[in-house]
Amino acid sequence: MSASQSTQGNSTSTVLGRRLGGELLNLRVTAGLTQTHAAKALTASTTKVAKMERGWVPMRDPDIRALCELYAVHDPGVVGRLLELARIDRERRKAKGWWDDYTTLGVMQEYVTLENAATTIRAWQPGFIPGLLQSPEYVRALRDGPSTSAEVAQRKVPDEEFVAARLARQRRLTDDPPLTLRAVLYEAVLRNFPSSTEAALGQIEHLTKVADLPNVTLQVFPFSGGVHHGLNGPFNIISFTEPGAMDVVYSESTFAPTWVEGGEGAAAYDELFETISERSLSERDSLLFLRNLSKEF
Length: 297
Prior knowledge:
Blueprint: E1 6-8, E2 11-13, H1 15-30, H2 35-42, H3 46-53, H4 61-70, H5 76-94, H6 108-117, E3 120-125, H7 136-144, H8 149-154, H9 159-168, E4 180-186, H10 197-211, E5 216-221, E6 235-239, E7 248-251, E8 258-260, H11 263-279, H12 283-294
Parallel strand pairs: 3-4, 4-5
Antiparallel strand pairs: 1-2, 3-6, 6-7, 7-8
């Protein structure tokens, strides 16, 4: 789905709401039941059930428990993950945070709110340094480079405000509890800096410092690693409980970022990321690569 969220009347469809609704829909279909059965269990209308399954409304814990009982889902782990996802979605819908102070986020606002709520992010990046790892000089260089018309319009925002909005995201890496980040960068990212040699060296030094954090894993996928489907574009896998349980995927493109809300699609990205990671340099060798690369500038 290309839109991160949409509105209908007083209702809002969110990424997490659709992820949760899709899980409940799959459980209902597996149980061989209809929306009418679900509506009776909730003493509600089929319209409400349809809105729940499409992510249009926040979900109450009693409703989720009642549906799990109806669908014969008794595994505490499964029920607990659904309840946790519902809790995070409710909080996300009403959340106010640093991102509300910046008008520069645009289509990234939904992603940033989910990043703030996530426990783990796995990021593959074949073109640019990931936002969570960018130095201030790198952000400025990207802002000064060739841009789309929408990005040109954003340049009306003062430079430092633009940079501050980007860097504010990085607080998640040192929060309590911190975000766990696993990032894999294609070698081309590290050889194609958008600015001066000094800025490139500063970015490499910044990467090595962040990689020292216990919650950050940084790997380099070298040219010698060959080709794979990840070269088609970058993506971030966002986890809210243990990775793989309730993931959503943010797939970046130049004009229309795409959300993959669970199911086989998210599982395919999960498998692709692990394949890329396995074929990449180890953490130790990746840091050695960065240190050797800095000597080439």
